[in-house]
């Protein structure tokens, strides 16, 4: 299977640039928006100083909470999922299932396509359930990678990762597919030799 999605019609925006306690006043998630083919997706609506830090930038895109069709959770740590409830009408995707209202549909995230331009892949390492959303855009593939990297500097040795070999393999997989990487708690960065593996 080709890693990157075949389509290149997705649009992408950062709603909130996150930080960790070593780079900011507390912990906040990098929350992203991806749109394609009538799907409006919020990725990792986690901890932020205020819900307005997510909903305000969405409104600037012309979208309200009710317009969001999908929420993708990279993994189940509270700092990455805290505000998923802002979008009660959205399908929620994780590593093993899709949830909507009281419906639970099992499906593996590996290779699951929301649209031809939006593909989920399994990237365990920071946690066993990590997934990445690969978004094919006009300017290349954006990898919304959750906490595979907290920010551009890594950390090189993730102190939370239960399996450092799996983390390295997942990072290499994303680096091979992406033109831009969105980490869990920092600004997007381009893959390059200085990016921790």
Description:
- With 197 residues, this protein is α+β, with helices and mostly antiparallel strands.
- It has one domain: 4-Layer Sandwich (Metallo-beta-lactamase, Chain A).
- It contains three helices and twelve strands.
- The chain has helices spanning 52-60, 78-81, 164-177; strands spanning 11-16, 31-36, 39-43, 70-72, 91-93, 97-100, 103-106, 113-115, 118-122, 131-137, 140-144, 180-182.
- The strands form two sheets. Strands 1-2-3-4-5-6-7 form a seven-stranded mixed beta sheet, covered by helices on one side. It has a five-stranded mixed beta sheet with strand order 8-9-10-11-12, covered by helices on one side.
- The chain is globular and about 40 Å long.
- The relative contact order is 0.19.
- The model has no long low-confidence stretch (mean pLDDT 96).
